[in-house]
Design a protein that fits this description.
Length: about 350
């Protein structure tokens, strides 16, 4: 049975068990109060991340390795959900997981254009890249090492034949060849990813489609809005370029909203209309350098609120597994902020305002 009580009985119980293992606001505050990286690591080992950190040897206890192990827990969560999800919903969950492979692909491409500065006797370009890649496990389709070692972007893209990225990058390579800039490739990957994710969401039916649209739609809206705002405020792109580099669909954010931003309409009024709970938008936009990260934080709080709402009411739909995965990702984002802050001795006031779990939406 694809969905319904029978299809969701096992996965609902499993997801709720994993959900119970997520860090509480009190856990995150306790971690935030760690005076240094080593104390943070020791405290993190007492949480559900402990089994992933226990395998690290003393010489491996550094920010990069700890972050990699934290991500492994997220990867395992995806693996569990994909394996247990009703067959009709599995393509959507698999596509959601490809977000991390898109990140890996971008990292590989960036490495290829900066390889000369990485040539040392102690390490290779692949050694450097491998440390930052998301641990996709058996779901990976990228020949990442071969791509890095190919020596050029063109040759690396040729190695993607037969993968979901072949068509997207082959088309975008025309602009890359002319401009020698990775921007067209990265934009093409992003837009292709979200178009396919939205298409998989719309293939669902009933409660799966309704609940899945809310979660995926909230994610898509946040990304699309931030793209449009950054393109307009930071990069000063033309109206046509902004429209071309964003998505013409969404859940609460519509094509007319994106086009209005592109055309120069008041961004604050658009955001306030869509998200009445977000206040002081005008003040945040006055200083984009510090304000846009804070605005994105507010969007993430709206996303978190949507995910938490999925756990109320009927549990037999794909919304709960999707919400759990998104909440897990947001938790990992908090932990990465903490790990990097504690290892770099960043003052509390600079990073605490960006921790979602210490101030969850009501």
């Amino acid at each position: 049975m694809a969905g319904g009580v029978t299809g969701y009985a096992a996965i609902s119980a499993r997801v709720r068990a994993m959900y119970a293992e997520l860090l509480t606001p009190q856990d995150m505050i306790r971690l935030s109060d760690s005076p240094d990286f080593q104390t943070l690591f020791s405290t993190l080992k007492t949480t559900s991340y402990g089994p992933y950190l226990d395998s690290l040897k003393d010489k491996e206890i550094n920010p990069k390795r700890v972050i990699s192990q934290v991500k492994r827990k997220l990867a395992d969560a995806y693996y569990s959900v994909i394996q247990m999800a009703p067959e009709s919903t599995r393509p959507l969950v698999k596509q959601l997981y490809r977000y991390y492979e898109i990140g890996n692909l971008k990292a590989v491409l960036r490495a290829l254009v900066t390889v000369p500065s990485w040539n040392t006797t102690e390490t290779t370009a692949w050694d450097r890249v491998r440390d930052v890649l998301f641990p996709m496990g058996s779901a990976a389709v990228l020949p990442a090492q071969a791509m890095v070692e190919s020596g050029s972007v063109g040759t690396a893209v040729d190695l993607l034949r037969g993968t979901p990225y072949e068509e997207t990058l082959s088309f975008a390579m025309r602009r890359y060849s002319a401009e020698q800039n990775l921007f067209p490739l990265e934009v093409a990957l992003d837009l292709g990813y979200w178009r396919r994710l939205w298409a998989e969401t719309k293939k669902l039916s009933g409660q799966d489609r309704e609940q899945g649209t809310k979660i995926i739609g909230a994610l898509l809206d946040m990304n699309n809005l931030m793209w449009a705002i950054r393109y307009k405020v930071y990069h000063k792109l033309s109206e046509e370029e902004i429209i071309n580099y964003t998505l013409p669909f969404g859940y609460r954010v519509q094509d007319t909203d994106i086009r209005a931003i592109a055309a120069g309409a008041d961004i604050a009024s658009i955001i306030t209309r869509i998200y009445p709970d977000i206040t002081d938008v005008s003040a945040l936009l006055e200083n984009p350098q510090t304000g846009l990260p804070r605005l994105e934080y507010q969007f993430k709080r709206q996303l978190m609120k949507q995910c938490l709402a999925a756990f109320v009411g009927n549990p037999f739909h794909i919304g709960i597994p999707l919400a759990f995965l998104v909440l897990s990702d947001l938790e990992v984002q908090d932990l990465i902020i903490l790990i990097e802050a504690k290892s770099s001795n960043i003052p509390d006031e600079e990073y605490r305002p960006f921790l979602l779990k210490t101030n969850p939406p009501s």
